[in-house]
Amino acid sequence: MRHPLVRLPLLDLESFARATGLHPELVRRLVALGLIDAFRDAAGDLCFPPSQLAAAGRLQRLHTQLAVNYASLGLVADLLDRIAELEAALRTRTRTQGGMPWT
């Protein structure tokens, strides 16, 4: 486990929504669907790590470019992550065995 030297501040819901260009209600929906990670602060308000800005951007691109509905975004994102893992494993295997890549 890595420990950052500097802890980045969390974004509140309004700041996160403004930074991503998403409506706060849509952000809440994405959190409820488990597509964006958020934490509750002491007051019970949603807070977001800055790393979730990239996750929200990816979800927006999938939604607009592939016309994937919000309910399906989790499955599509998981499948894309799995493909990336398999491709990385294949590249590693090809390098260590000295074989030719399949592409």
What are the main properties of this structure?
4 helices, mainly alpha, 54% helix, 3 strands, 103 residues, 3-stranded antiparallel sheet
Protein described:
The protein is mainly alpha-helical. Helix content is 54%, strand content 7%. The protein is built from four helices and three strands. It has helices spanning 13-20, 24-32, 52-65, 73-97; strands spanning 11-12, 39-40, 46-48. β2 and β3 (46-48) form a beta hairpin. The longest helix is centred in the last third of the chain and has 25 residues, at 73-97.
Number of helices: 4
> Structural class of the secondary structure composition?
mainly alpha
Low-confidence stretches: none
Major sheet, described briefly?
Answer: 3 strands, antiparallel
Helix percent reads 40-55%
Shape: extended
Rounded to an integer, what's the Rg over CA atoms?
18 Å
Strand content: 5-15%
Distance between the termini: 34 Å
Strand order of the largest sheet: 1-3-2
Order of helices and strands: EHHEEHH
Number of strands: 3
* Average of the residue pLDDT scores: 89
